[in-house]
Design brief:
- With about 300 residues, the chain is mainly alpha-helical.
- It contains 13 helices and no strands.
- It is about 75% helix and about 0% strand.
- Helix 3 runs antiparallel to helix 9 and helix 5 runs parallel beside helix 8.
- The chain starts with 5 loop residues before the first helix and ends in an 11-residue tail after the last helix.
Length: about 300
């Protein structure tokens, strides 16, 4: 039986989480005619209920939250879940999805710079270089696209929210753990998204899904929310926000694989080149730092 180190577990968890999130692209076409914000609310509601069951099974029952923890969890749900979804949807109305994806793909660079500051340490130049290489790989895969200044501004807002999904979790993960943080943040996002849905879609915020839509929503709830959240929040304390952010490069890999499996697309040469750049960036960022030779007194 192979025994993994703590860092290897973190790397495996982060890669798995981002790969699962990438499959969102493959199933999204099935939800093109379903109310966007109502669908996200359903996704997080089902995900939160499943996560609470998981918490019960693993003995991670409810704990009394401090005021600080409530504020961090509410901010995490508002930015990393609710606002992120709203900004992504609205930005694609004013800009090409490739342009939006390219902007949001810069999150490894943001985490490489801001993450160490949150954790009260200096940014590692090696990880920053690796983040640039990973982002280059994602850009090669997705392309640049085009759009209006409004669309790009909204995309940068989504980038900030994506960074908040990790950074706002760090202060509460130590005491609450991955299961509770995932469950509480998903539950808090439900009323927020329903409120947005009522404002945007009115009475049409929810409807009974078709069989295909129900399967897509189930995938979002179980794989992209429950499983991916648990993997990501378990990996984050092990790797740190900067190194964990490098695994965002697995998003387009998951998108390409899911498209091939579902028959909605085929990998291009640019996809392969981008994946290679992502792997090179990971190799740079995850390489152990050289130990300085001892100097004789």
């Amino acid at each position: 039986m192979v025994t993994l180190t703590d860092g290897q577990r973190g790397a495996l968890g982060a890669a798995t989480a981002m790969f699962c999130v990438g499959t969102l692209t493959g199933v999204s076409p099935a939800l093109h005619h379903y109310p966007v914000y109502g669908g996200q609310a359903v996704r997080y509601l089902v995900g939160a209920l499943l996560l609470l069951v998981v918490a019960r099974v693993f003995g991670k029952g409810f704990v009394r939250l401090t005021r600080r923890e409530v504020l961090f969890l509410a901010a995490l749900a508002l930015t990393g879940l609710t606002a992120f979804n709203v900004l992504i949807v609205e930005s694609t109305r004013h800009a090409d999805p490739a342009a939006v994806g390219t902007v949001v793909a810069a999150v490894p660079i943001v985490l490489a710079v801001v993450g160490p500051a949150v954790e009260r340490r200096r940014p590692a130049p090696r990880v920053l270089v690796a983040a640039v290489v990973v982002v280059a790989g994602v850009v090669v895969t997705g392309g640049f696209g085009g759009g209006s200044p409004v669309g790009l501004l909204l995309a940068f807002g989504a980038l900030a929210c994506e960074a908040g999904f990790s950074l706002l979790a760090l202060p509460v993960l130590g005491r609450l753990g991955a299961i509770r943080v995932s469950a509480y943040s998903a539950a808090l996002a439900v009323p927020q998204l329903l409120l947005v849905g009522v404002v945007v879609d009115g009475a049409a915020v929810l409807r009974v899904p078709t069989a295909a839509e129900a399967l897509a929503l189930a995938h979002l709830a179980v794989v992209v929310t429950v499983f991916a959240f648990l993997c990501w929040y378990a990996a984050l304390p092990r790797l740190g926000a900067d190194r964990a952010g490098l695994f965002s490069g697995f998003l387009p890999v998951g998108a390409v694989v899911s498209a091939v499996v579902l028959g909605t697309g085929q990998p291009r040469f640019a996809d392969l080149v981008g994946a290679c750049l992502v792997l090179v960036g990971l190799a740079i960022g995850l390489r152990p730092a050289r130990r300085r030779a001892a100097v004789a007194a």
